[in-house]
Amino acid sequence: MAVTREGRVEGKVAVVFGGARGIGAGIVLRLAEDGARVIVGDMREELAQALAARVGGLFIRADVGEPADITAGVRAAVERFGRLDIMVQNAG
């Protein structure tokens, strides 16, 4: 039995904390490639902004050690896209 990803995240809204580089950036790229709308949350503003622009997403400055920044990420998703379907905590 083959496992496929087709349509699993198409149209979903995702926030990826720690998404500016490395594994986090890979997650952002894959989600966007598979049709998700992605918000990149990271403290590395230049890298995260560039990646968000590359995938047609949104950047938010986020320090996951600050609960208010996590709340801001959720709020950004809901305000921009009307909901949040996927949250990835990759920072740290």
Give a description of the structure.
The chain has 92 residues and is α/β, with parallel strands linked by helices. The protein has a single domain (13-89), classed as NAD(P)-binding Rossmann-like Domain (Rossmann fold, 3-Layer(aba) Sandwich), CATH 3.40.50. 40% of the residues lie in helices and 21% in strands. It is built from three helices and four strands. The protein has helices at residues 22-33, 45-54, 67-81; strands at residues 13-17, 37-42, 58-61, 86-89. It has a four-stranded parallel sheet, with helices on both faces. Strand 1 (13-17), helix 1 (22-33) and strand 2 (37-42) form a beta-alpha-beta unit. It is globular. The model has no long low-confidence stretch (mean pLDDT 92).
Residue runs with pLDDT of under 50 for 5 or more positions: none
Strand-residue proportion: 15-25%
Reported by name, the CATH topology is Rossmann fold
- How many domain modules? 1
